[in-house]
Each structure stands twice: as structure tokens, then as C-alpha cells.
Amino acid sequence: MLEPPERLYNPRDYVETNTGNKVSKKTILCGSQQILLSGKSILEHDSVIRADLSTVKIGRYFVLSHGAILKPSYKPLARVQSTPQSAAAVPISFMYSSLNIGDFVYIGEKSVVQAASIGSHVYIGHNCVVSRGCVLRDCISIADNTFVAPDTIIPPFTIFAGNIGKEVGELPDCTADLMEEFMTTNYAKFVSGTRS
Question: In which order are the strands placed within the sheet that holds 165-170?
Fold first, then answer.
């Protein structure tokens, strides 16, 4: 992985918590009382977390990039068939489940993620869609512009890409170490200040 460049942010535009979370004032946090950030996370401007639907628990060193949307997955409980006598649409009942995200997870710009769970050391590129019910195991990489179909389970050490996404390669055994270094460096280089 490439070393991330230093990025400056205006301290008036971000709130920094006691645990080192840096949250943009332009981040939309729905149901903020149901969001648990473990620490050292960055939530950039125009990103959205929909915890009003269900609880969202996020590990350490997490990045939700500009314009990205994170929301819990749902599953249908019962499908009601329409009858020939009734042309009206029949509602489908469903339930949202809590979303657990591991440590060292990066979600790229303008990605929409509605996974059932996300492990640790996961990289999701820019403009990706991770559909409902997906399970992302530890140490995976999803390439930019990838669409992950509903209920997909991505195994560890997998590179996933395409529209519709599929396995295109494997990651090395040292992926956890590389991702930890990338995320800690990314956090350290996201600093308060303005350009001269």
C-alpha cells in the first residue's frame, strides 16, 4: 500500500473526542446515541451513518470518507404474495440488524455500505456499493467502483472487484500488518491546520 499524504483539516470544521475520534461537523449522524466509536476514527464531511435504523459499533482506526454512507443491513421476515383479486402492492415486513465493524477499516469516498458485518483490516475503495446482508471477513480489499451483490460472503485475504463483484485475487499473509500501518499513518497524517 502507498503511504497516505499529509491532509490538513480546519479545526473549526471537526470535533475531536477524548478517544481521538475526529468527526466533521458536516457528518450526518442519525441516531447518534446508537453509534459506538472505539477511538482514533475519522468521519469526513458529507458522510452519513444511519444508526437510527439499528446499532452501529465501530472498532479503532476507522475512516468513513467524504460522501460515504454506512447503514445497517436488513432482512425480510415474511413475503406476502399478492393475489389476482388484489392488484395493490402488499408490504414486505423486514428487520434491521446491528452492524459490527472491526478495527483498521477504510471506506472510500462516495461508497454505500449496508453490510451485515465487516471484519478487521478491510479496505473498501471509492464509489463502491456493498449491498444488504453481505459479510466481509478479515483482511479483504474491495476495488474502486465495485458492486457487491446482496448476501455475498467474502472470505479472508480476498481481492474483490467488478460489477457484479467477484474474487479476482488473493492478499498476502501480511495484510493485517500492512493495513494497520496504513491506517495508523493515515490517522497521524490527518492533522489540524490550514495551508499557507
Answer: 14-16, 22-24, 42-43, 62-64, 105-107, 122-124, 140-142, 158-162, 165-170
Alpha-carbon distance of 14 to 30, in angstroms, equals: 17
What single letter denotes the amino acid at residue 146? Answer: T
State phi, psi for 167 to the nearest 5 degrees: -70, 125
Q: Which of 46, 51, 49 is nearest to 31 (CA)?
A: 51
**Strands 42-43, 62-64: pairing kind:** parallel
Distance (Å, whole) CA 173 – CA 153: 20
Instruction: Quote the DSSP letter at residue 91.
Output: P
Nearest to 115 by CA among 72, 69, 147, 64: 72
pLDDT digits (tens, 9 = 90+) for 139-194: 999 999 999 999 999 999 999 999 999 999 999 999 999 999 999 999 999 998 86
What's the grid cell of residue 93? 415486513
CB 40 within 8 A of CB 60: yes
Domains, the chain, with CATH or none = 11-73+92-188 (2.160.10.10)
Task: Indicate the pTM of the whole model.
Answer: 0.90
At which residue does the C-alpha cell 478487521 appear?
120
